[in-house]
Amino acid sequence: MKQYRFSNDMNQKIVDGILQGYKNYVDEREEKRKSMKISSAYAWVKGNHIDDQTASLCKEIGVEYKNATAGYTWGYLQLVSKDTRKMFILKNARYFNKDNFPGGTGVNGKKNKEKKKDNYLKNLSKINQDVDFPKEKNLLTDDNPTFLRLFDDNTLKSLEKSDVNKLQKDFDNFYIVTYGLDEGNMISNIKVWMPNPNNDVAYEVDDLTSLISTSSIDITDIDTSVLENDLMDDDYTYNTAFDYDIELDELDDDKKDESGK
């Protein structure tokens, strides 16, 4: 199923962008720790750094980006290749629940078993409605098929049907590129997934992990000790309420009820 993969050049640019963005993020965390009396809020900017650098490097090969908003204020980028009619976004791998669609993982590490409504990712996956998905759940090989359950992340607001219809006309394929961190807070794996809107399963299209070692971006020299005291990383902190399908305004209403105001 090689027709679903990105080009070699794009694969390397994506990996380089993720590595450079993460390196910039760790460097900024270290600089702010030294220059500010408190800098814990900078734990929230990792995704911005990774999106920014991936967009910058992929621009060199004709990939454009679109600003989008998740939830109320959380910004992220949609990266699009108009020539190949492909769109992808970047996600931290830790927010995919392999065992339950469309449940999530909460702040206490427990998986949410409750089914959830269609969200942004579910709607974007409809771009792939005409993809001829194989019976195997892994587009790489026929052996040991693996799959990734999607849509545990409800921080992203749903798109209007008109928006989805337009995207379906503009693009043939939608992907989610995930990056994973090891126990030492280093980028350890990068994979490309194609979500199937018909069965809510994300199929592994490519594993870009080997390109980390061939990248021109060296992250072996970064000091991740600045991250050791983080209670949780940036996206996880922000997503906690939404993992349980709790809206921020609902939380505010609860507080008002408890206070009698």
Q: Element order, helices and strands?
A: HHEEEHEHEEEHHH
Distance between the termini: 59 Å
Q: Provide a count of the helices.
A: 7
Mean pLDDT, to the nearest integer, reads: 75
Structural class: alpha+beta
In the predicted model, the low-confidence regions spanning at least 5 consecutive residues are 97-113, 141-147, 149-158, 233-261
Strand order of the largest sheet: 1-2-3-5-6-7-4
C-alpha Rg, in Å?
Answer: 19 Å
Task: Please give a quick description of this structure.
This protein has 7 helices and 7 strands, in the order ααβββαβαβββααα. It has 261 residues and is an alpha+beta fold. Strand 6 (187-196) and strand 7 form a beta hairpin.
Structure keywords:
261 residues, 32% helix, 7 helices, 20% strand, alpha+beta, 7 strands, 7-stranded mixed sheet
Can you give a write-up of this model?
With 261 residues, the chain is of the alpha+beta class. The chain has one domain (2-259). The protein is 32% helix and 20% strand. It is built from seven helices and seven strands, in the order ααβββαβαβββααα. It has helices at 8-35, 46-58, 120-125, 161-170, 211-214, 234-243, 248-259, and strands spanning 64-70, 74-81, 86-92, 147-149, 173-181, 187-196, 201-207. The protein has a seven-stranded mixed sheet with strand order 1-2-3-5-6-7-4. β6 (187-196) and β7 (201-207) form a beta hairpin. α1 (8-35) packs antiparallel against α2. The longest helix has 28 residues, at 8-35. The termini are far apart. The relative contact order is 0.18.
